[in-house]
Design a protein that fits this description.
With 224 residues, the chain is of the alpha/beta class. It contains seven helices and nine strands. Helices cover 45% and strands 18% of the residues. It has a seven-stranded mixed β-sheet with strand order 1-9-6-2-5-3-4, with helices on both faces. Strands 7-8 form a two-stranded antiparallel sheet. Helix 1 crosses helix 4 and helix 5 packs parallel to helix 6.
Length: 224
């Protein structure tokens, strides 16, 4: 169901959920003790006058939202009821949203993301979302990078103490005052007008780099 087709009651409930959850999540995020490695890769992209396409695993949405807040990044959110309240929370953290997913409305959302990148905004992708399989990169971010010339910037986040949700992506919710490690990898440039073979090579490269960042953040989060 599209967000535009939600009933008035559904929109009201979504707003109520977002109104309650946003301050709680903002307070939780403010308590995190961040450890960051690789921020120079992000800075280098800006120095070249570009904006990145952030790529990360779906199970790290919450800490990623807290870390990259207030940077005007556009992210894709689903058009259903859950996507509505999640989108409102994300917007409260200073993001912009493109409504759609790989299963519905994705082409329209990619058009908006492409337009926003050309307007000087970054984009963010949970590259194994919205339904998985977990830790398998889907092609959306790869297509967008090929169309726009923006580099893909992979990153991963891991906390030393967290709750884990029983979902396909094993969503991680860092506990208050936990140590949260962020590892940002080297950018990946996808060739323009890439054919299917080149797109697959880039997709595998993003997947491999993200998996390597998982191991790095686990060491960072656990070390004293």
């Amino acid at each position: 169901m599209s967000a535009t087709k939600l009933s008035r009651g559904q929109r009201a409930r979504a707003t109520a959920i977002a109104t309650v959850l946003y301050p709680l999540l903002a307070m939780l995020g403010a308590s995190f003790r961040w450890r960051v490695d690789g921020l120079e890769h992000y800075d280098a992209i800006h120095t070249r006058g570009q904006e990145p396409i952030f790529a990360f695993w779906h199970g790290r949405i919450l800490p990623a939202t807290c870390f990259w807040r207030r940077r005007g990044i556009t992210v894709m959110t689903s058009e259903n009821f859950d996507g509505e309240w999640i989108g409102q929370i994300i917007e409260s953290f200073g993001y912009e949203t493109a409504r759609g997913s790989t299963s519905h409305g994705g082409s329209r959302a990619l058009v908006q993301l492409r337009r926003d990148i050309h307007a000087g905004k970054a984009a963010g992708f949970t590259v194994d979302g919205p339904r998985g399989p977990a830790y398998t990169v889907q092609p959306g971010a790869i297509w967008l990078a090929s169309l726009t010339g923006s580099p893909i910037l992979p990153f991963h986040i891991e906390a030393d103490r967290y709750w884990s949700v029983r979902s396909w992506d094993r969503t991680q919710v860092p506990k208050p005052f936990s140590r949260v490690a962020v590892a940002i990898g080297e950018p990946i440039v996808v060739p323009g007008r890439a054919d299917a073979e080149a797109l697959e090579v880039s997709r595998l490269s993003v997947e491999q780099r993200l998996n390597a960042l998982v191991e790095r953040t686990r060491v960072m989060a656990s070390s004293r």
